[in-house]
Amino acid sequence: MAMSHNQQDQQVPMIARNIGTDYSYKHQIVWKNVIGFIILHLFASWGLIVLLTGGVGIKTFIWSCFLVYIMGEGVTTGAHRLFTHRTYKATPLCKAFLLAMHTIAGQNSMFIWCRDHRLHHRYSDTDGDPHNSKRGFFFCHMGWLMHKKHPYVIELGRTIDMSDLQADWMVMFQKKYYYPLYILLAIFIPVYVPVYFFGEHWWNSLLIAYFLRYVYSLHGTWLVNSVAHLYGTRPYDKNLHPVESWFVSVITFGEGWHNYHHAFPWDYKAAELSNFINHSATFIEFLEKIGLAYDLKTASPEMVSNRIVRTGDGSHYRLGDEESRAAVTAWGPLHPLNPTYNSTLKPPEDKLKP
User: Fold this and answer.
1) Alpha helix positions (H), the chain
2) Is residue 49 part of a domain?
């Protein structure tokens, strides 16, 4: 009996049963994206020069920093920990604010962001991962946005369960009206406030309150895909490519504890500790205290300890061993703000995923 089109669409795509990284595959460059990113970075660099030479007032700078914070929490607390992983529940008012904050971040609609991130977790560091770290630092940092998606990313993306977000009218509203909402929330209001309230020149306001803060926040998010998959320790699971990065956690309000997060993706803390360079966890706890968030999920201490002993690389601060911890090195002091903080422990071998 011939299948209907709906039945065909529901079939799992015909992809190799085991997915790794085909290093012979050449990604096709999307030149309009390349040109767009060049223009974006040129204006951001112009804005940085204006800022460093005193071209804008302190109020405009503070306003831009506030926007970076708002959009950062929209990504970490909203898109990542709530809408993608469902690590806690939120009231409609809280969800509305987080959706607006995420829109300011300008990282595509909530629906697409969550789909790509769920795909990233399901096929992490393989050709099914939109920003496969095995393709090198530049690709997983930002190059993936300048290339045509790998066929596996496209096909496997259709299999990701998005029914929860499809049933959420707020998410679908933002998806439908994303571009006009972005123009209003991410461009017009951020630029208008310094001009109207602080007497800033509109061009300088555009350079600082839009271009510079936007590019800064983009690179902060991208660090999770690049640095937090390449340079650090794996105290929870040495078989996972993501690592623990103090440096990335400082920049991203706690998203750099990435080895833990991939080991326990349902944990609202996205880290073992909520009070160590993890402001997003503190923010979620604050939302819980004022009644906007509830049902916070977390891995039990026993579960975490068992995972560390069973699969960790030995570098854990409490349950590790001195030899493994000694493999952690840096140029200068071992400090969260030192980007050379690294581990000489052997990374996991490529493993095919079913």
Assistant:
1) 5-10, 31-52, 58-73, 92-105, 110-122, 137-141, 151-157, 163-166, 169-176, 178-182, 189-198, 202-206, 213-225, 227-230, 246-252, 258-263, 279-289, 301-311, 322-326
2) yes
